[in-house]
Amino acid sequence: MVEIRNPSETVPGKNDRFEELGKGCYAFGADGCSNTGVIIGERGVLVVDPQATPALAEKVLQKIRELTDKPIKQVVLTHFHADSTLGATAFEPADVIASDLTRRMIDTRGSDDIRVLCDRDSALFSDLPADSTVIQPSMTIASSMTIDLGGMEVRLMHLGRGHTMGDMVVWVPQSSVIFAGDLVQKTSVPYCGDAHLTDWPRALDRVTAFRPNALMPGRGKSAKGGPAVATAVEMTRDYVITLRDAASACVEQSLGLRDTYLAVKDALEPQFGSRENFEFHLPFNVARAYDEALGLDQPQIWTLERCADLVDALGGSQSTPDDAASDEQVAVAAQSDEADGDQTVEDSQSELVTDTDFAASLVSGPEQDDEGEDLDLTADDIADDGDETTVASRQGDGENQEKVLEGVR
User: Would you say 67 and 92 are in contact if contact means Cβ atoms under 8 Å apart?
Assistant: First the structure.
């Protein structure tokens, strides 16, 4: 039986921790929750991924106030998912920043994402206010921006499609710390339901190119030290490539979704079966990999009805959408027909500087609609290799996809 609701009995928010990753850089984490990054400068504080609910965000705010009384200047959304964004209101930031593509996904998918996640992980959203709606960015960026927090330079960058098409990372060069959002995992398997699996390894190459000394993943404890960062990135890469290639091999053999699910599970389980969220994410990950192998470039929107159809297709069972916990927990406001559109940095906002030169250095070709950008890092942004060797991408390594399924169903 396939069950898409979180089977864990973990109480979200328990066993919280606040780790220092480098000068002025911290990571908040707790059982059953996404991670939140905190960067403290002389002028103020920047928060990365503000938790799933305002109540969980208050836990982060309490940790911040133990260190500083400086104002929360910005909240950065690395992607659109509700489990990382709905706590933003608790910080009362001057600005909420996301990529242009994340803003588009919030507008087109955000309300459904809240409903689905409240149904799938009801414990995480149990204290979400009933009138909660999607978090709208006050500012969006195409590829990069540099923020001066006062003695602390922070770079926001869209490095290409991966976990979603709008992923951003937050890089603090002074401290050699990168906040990667759900683009990288360390102890959990990645969620791939809205992913671009072919592009994801290339985005991981760009993360590796910074050679960070510390990395905050989407969930779980942070990676500290170059070897630990490399291990987290490579685990994520291995999962994504194995998922992608196994599903592609199944499609080439004309297998249906259920048989693909069983075969891909067998391919992934030996290496990843003991990791957090393996069973929880697997139906959605396989469904997206199957679609991409069939040539569907843009992920389908996950609705309660589509989730029920997925369970039926895989031979599982769940309650109907009318019985979903999310319908009682949250009423999602309708999207306004008078959207403000993407906002730009005004001249008076001297602390927020659009780094056009740096943005231009990342883009080596014309912008591709809905497909991200072909990005390149400059020599200034890539650490000197020295005596060490940068981990190379294994994408397109020449191995036959059929080998992925060798010895499985």
Answer: no
pLDDT at 387 over 60: no
Strand-pair category, 223-224 with 177-181? unpaired
Task: Report the Cα 315 to chain-centroid distance in Å.
Answer: 29
> How many residues does this entry show for the chain?
409
Task: Provide the CB-side half-sphere exposure for 88 (13 A, CA).
Answer: 30
State phi, psi for 91 to the nearest 5 degrees: -85, -15
CB hemisphere CA count around 141 (13 angstroms): 31
Query: Where does residue 394 rank: exposed (0-12), middle (13-18), buried (19+ CB within 10 A)?
Result: middle
Assign 319 a pLDDT band (cuts: 50, 70, 90): very low
pTM of whole model > 0.90? no
Instruction: State CA 322 to chain mean position distance.
Output: 29
pLDDT at 322: 42
Sign, Cα dihedral of 261, 325, 9, 60: positive
Which helix (H) or strand (E) segment holds residue 42: the answer is none
For 171, the enclosing helix (H) or strand (E) is strand 169-172
Measured CA distances, 203 to 140, 270, 285, 358, 378 (Å): 20, 25, 18, 17, 15
| Residue 159: strand, helix, or coil | coil
- Per-residue pLDDT at 3: 85
Contacts of residue 110, defined as CB under 8 A and 6 or more positions apart, other chains included, come to 80, 82, 134
Q: What is the dihedral of CA 71, 24, 27, 133, to 10 degrees?
A: 30
Element (H, E) at 153: strand 153-157
- Token pair in block for residue 126: 């149990």
| CA pair distance 402, 252, nearest whole angstrom | 9
